[in-house]
Amino acid sequence: MQQLGMGQAVNQALREEMTRDAGVFIAGEGVGVSIHDSPMLPTAGLLKEFGPGRVKDTPVSEAAIAGLAVGAAAAGLRPVVEIMFNPFFTLASDMIVNHAAKLRYLSGGKSAFPLVVRIKSGAGFGAGCQHAHNLEAWAAHCPGLKVVMPSTPADAKGLLKSAVRDENPVVFIEDMLLYFVPGPVPDGEYLVPIGKADIKRQGKDVTMVTWSKMLGVAMKAAEQLAQDGIELEVVDVRTLAPLDKETILASVRKTGRLVVLHEATRTGGFAGEISAIVIEEALTSLKAPLRRVTGPDIPVPTSPPLERFYIPNEEKLISAIREIL
């Protein structure tokens, strides 16, 4: 077992898949420049190992990067392109949403369009609203896209390898602060299936559903509440589309209570979709009203104190849990 940050785990996955399949290449703004040679970052060393034919630095144009991915996938390659910050998804969305997400459907399932769009995301490093806003609900709303948002280095590696091999377009969202948080990663070849949630902590009192960086908040809250005899069951969805609703519903039927936690803003956030599924399919199992703990409906602040206010923390989560207990 290795101890890696998520950036290193992503790097391993890319290296292994590029070695395994000559049709896999990476492209994006600065993916081959020396600033990315820090060993903690996802594309470190790949240009030196695979050369400029398979590690392509692109112009600063997210629309062009996405267009490159769609064209390459249609031509039979397996592109893995990088969008530097989540809000820049809006610039790439025409090619991703109107073309990549729909081409397999329009072919009647006869054609494959394998591509991965890696997107850096998350608040907490003072980059402000034009770089740090979380838009995973936008991507999950688009039919034809798979949306993956790992929380641990092990899941990041296994899910990215699965995404590269998938015959459909996959939006793979990586929280940048997790690049530097070490965690155990299995040695050797392994895959994590897309569309399968993982129960990171067993519990009997409250179902806590979350993903990405907020898993750490959920686990810390669970440890604090355990001291008072309150046992949280922490469900890491890992994949927003397709969503493993069976695991969520089974947990809610066991505990009778639900809290959904994410960093993205509240209105239209993916917590609303999960809440709706539970209301539709497990309402009679609920012993109390469900709760959503999310970022507020404001742009992500640049000021460190205001940014700390924006990001949900253990205190806000514990308060919501105690309300429904």
CATH topology of the largest domain: Rossmann fold
Strand content: 15-25%
| Tally of contiguous helical segments | 12
Major sheet: arrangement of strands: 3-2-4-5-7-6-12
Q: Any idea what the CATH architecture of the largest domain is?
A: 3-Layer(aba) Sandwich
Mean pLDDT: 95
Describe this structure in words.
This protein has 2 domains: 2-185, Rossmann fold (3-Layer(aba) Sandwich); 198-324, Rossmann fold (3-Layer(aba) Sandwich), CATH 3.40.50.920. By secondary structure, it is an alpha/beta fold. α1 (6-20) packs parallel to α7, α3 (62-74) runs parallel beside α4 and α8 crosses α12. The strands form 3 sheets. A 7-stranded mixed sheet has the order 3-2-4-5-7-6-12, with helices on both faces. The longest helix is centred in the first third of the chain and has 18 residues, at 89-106. The protein contains 12 helices and 14 strands. The model has no long low-confidence stretch (mean pLDDT 95). It is globular, with a radius of gyration of 19 Å.
Features:
Rossmann fold; 12 helices; 39% helix; five-stranded mixed sheet; 325 residues; alpha/beta
Short description:
The chain has helices spanning 6-20, 46-50, 62-74, 89-106, 129-132, 136-140, 153-165, 214-226, 245-255, 270-282, 304-310, 314-324, and strands at 2-4, 24-28, 55-57, 78-83, 115-121, 146-148, 169-175, 183-185, 198-201, 206-210, 232-236, 239-241, 258-265, 291-295. With 325 residues, the protein is α/β, with parallel strands linked by helices.
